[in-house]
């Protein structure tokens, strides 16, 4: 499942540099996560690094992008082929 940033985001800039897939970028009002690039850090780390550093816990599962660990691993494999 991809992650999303909620409206509780305080634009602290902590999450963006932690994303190994460069899925996080500054949106119009708050940071946003591109669900097509988010693998919940599968392939890189044991846990999502953005959630780990977020001081307000505003990064949650994106219910519109339900993916298993296997699907996230396949997405990771596709992303590293593109780079």
UniProtKB/TrEMBL annotation:
Residues 1-29, 31-64 form the 4Fe-4S ferredoxin-type domain. The keyword DNA-binding does not apply. It holds the Pfam family Fer4. It comes from the Bacteria. GO terms for cellular component: cytoplasm. Its cofactor is [4Fe-4S] cluster. Keywords: 4Fe-4S, Electron transport, Iron, Iron-sulfur, Metal-binding, Transport. The keyword Electron transport applies. One of its GO terms (molecular function) is 4 iron, 4 sulfur cluster binding. This is Ferredoxin. It comes from Candidatus Berkiella cookevillensis. The lineage of its organism: Bacteria, Pseudomonadati, Pseudomonadota, Gammaproteobacteria, Candidatus Berkiellales. The gene is fdx_2.
């Amino acid at each position: 499942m991809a992650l999303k940033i909620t409206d509780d985001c305080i634009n602290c800039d902590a999450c963006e540099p932690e994303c190994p897939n460069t899925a996080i970028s500054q949106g119009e009002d708050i940071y946003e996560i591109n669900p097509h690039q988010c693998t919940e850090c599968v392939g890189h780390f044991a846990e999502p690094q953005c959630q780990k550093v977020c001081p307000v816990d505003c990064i949650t599962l994106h219910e519109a992008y339900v993916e298993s660990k296997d699907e996230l691993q396949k997405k990771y494999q596709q992303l590293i082929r593109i780079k």
